[in-house]
Amino acid sequence: MLDSGNNNELPPIPGKRYFTIGEVSTLCEVKPHVLRYWEQEFPNLSPVKRRGNRRYYQRQDVIIIRQIRSLLYEQGFTIGGARQRLSSEDAKEDQTQFRLLIRQTIVELEDVLRVLKS
Question: What is the mean pLDDT of the segment spanning 91-95?
Fold first, then answer.
């Protein structure tokens, strides 16, 4: 995941549920047209669209945008490289969550087995 040290200069993300494109632009120091372009280039960035195609970003979207910003502007990745890096991080995260789920299931099954034996 993104090293938190890369975004020290960015303002903290407020505890809101939804953010407008203007708010996200300020929070991530990226212009709105760049955010709209990134939506086309990065499949895991998809804000909620409501009436009149108004975009509403959630906290997770803001975090992804900050990751993209860091990869492109600070680490020198290309769009394709950043897209690949984010998708590989997502795959690693999915594997970790899958392993945790398997461990939890095993523990629960062992508990059921103990109850059945007694």
Answer: 63
User: Domain 4-86 carries which CATH code?
Assistant: 1.10.1660.10
Residue 11, both tokens? 């303002």
Q: Residues 89, 96: contact at Cβ < 8 Å?
A: no
Whether 10 and 68 have beta carbons less than 8 Å apart is answered as no
Query: Mind giving me the DSSP string for 64-103?
Result: HHHHHHIIIIIS---HHHHHHHHHHHHHHHHHHHHHHHHH
Domain locations in the chain as residue ranges: 4-86
- What letter represents residue 45's amino acid? L
Residue range 37-51, pLDDT digits in tens: 999 999 889 899 988
Tally the residues of the chain: 118
The pTM for the full model equals 0.69
